[in-house]
Design goal:
Order of helices and strands: HHHEEHHEE
Strand content: 15-25%
CATH architecture: 2-Layer Sandwich
Oligomer: single chain
Strand order of the largest sheet: 1-2-4-3
Radius of gyration: 15 Å
CATH class: Alpha Beta
Number of domains: 1
């Protein structure tokens, strides 16, 4: 197995682990509580994570996470002061739907991106316009 295949395999295993965690939390009736606790942890950890990864812009945030996690291939655009990221595919969402698991969106994607966006040098607020769980694509907008 070459490095690219190894990375893709690890990304698939990671997405599967995220989905399984959400499934287990739901089965034990604690998904909402864990999601909220993780949101607070992610907000607190975000400045250090951005620093370690060298992320200073919304573009770098989405590009870096696409490269590391391979879950979604984000395309980005800026319209005025609004930064928009879109994707038509999400590995975690696809796995969750196939397994009948709950939506992994908030715990594994929305909350981490919101925390990180709020910790950028020019802090941004994340607004979710659409997700693949309920729609045709994920559309996230970041505004100052």
């Amino acid at each position: 197995m070459n490095e690219t295949q190894t990375l893709k395999t690890l990304q698939l295993f990671y997405a599967g682990a995220l989905v399984d965690a959400a499934r287990q939390y739901e089965a034990h009736g604690v998904l909402e509580q864990v999601t909220e606790a993780k949101r607070r942890e992610q907000e607190a950890a975000a400045p250090g994570q951005l620093l370690r990864l060298g992320i200073t812009t919304p573009e770098a945030l989405f590009a870096t996470f696409s490269a590391i996690f391979g879950c979604a291939a984000w395309t980005t655009e800026t319209e005025g002061r609004t930064f928009r990221a879109k994707t038509g595919s999400c590995l975690a969402c696809a796995i969750a739907k196939k397994l009948g698991a709950p939506a992994p969106c908030s715990i594994s994607c929305i909350n981490p991106f919101a925390g990180l966006a709020g910790a950028l040098p020019e802090p941004r607020r994340l607004e979710v316009r659409e997700t693949l769980w309920d729609g045709d694509e994920c559309v996230f907008e970041l505004t100052p």
